[in-house]
Amino acid sequence: MNIEQMLAVLDPEIVSRLKTAIEIGKWPNGVVLTQEQRHTCMQAVYAWEAKHLPETERSGYIDRGTKEEDEHCDSHVEEPEFKPIRFV
């Protein structure tokens, strides 16, 4: 089976089950996934999501925000200059 045939068979429910199996390391019947099965499932999920979901909804997406070059986060507070502790 090639990648196109595999993607044609997958639907959101199957992809959800694959993601759960990857997360917990087991199939729904309790059998542990092998390392090869886990990698194959991840590849299938990533390929399906790349074809069917917008980037912001895909596994592993990190929102980098839209800060300007010198703009800091709201929670960023300048720390005072480092001063070593002196023990007496």
Structure commentary:
With 88 residues, this protein is mainly α. The chain has a domain at 3-57. The chain is 43% helix and 0% strand. It is built from three helices and no strands. The protein has helices at 3-9, 12-24, 35-52. Helix 2 packs antiparallel against helix 3 (35-52). It is elongated and about 70 Å long. The model has no long low-confidence stretch (mean pLDDT 85).
**Number of DSSP strands?**
0
Instruction: Identify the quaternary structure here.
Output: single chain
Distance between the termini: 73 Å
Rg calculated over all Cα atoms: 22 Å
Share in helix: 40-55%
Structural class: mainly alpha
Report strand %.
under 5%
Biggest sheet character: none
Dominant shape: elongated
H/E order of the elements? HHH
Q: Compute the average pLDDT.
A: 85
Provide a count of the helices.
Answer: 3
Unreliable stretches = none
Core attributes:
PA-phosphatase; elongated; 88 residues; mainly alpha; single chain; DUF1315
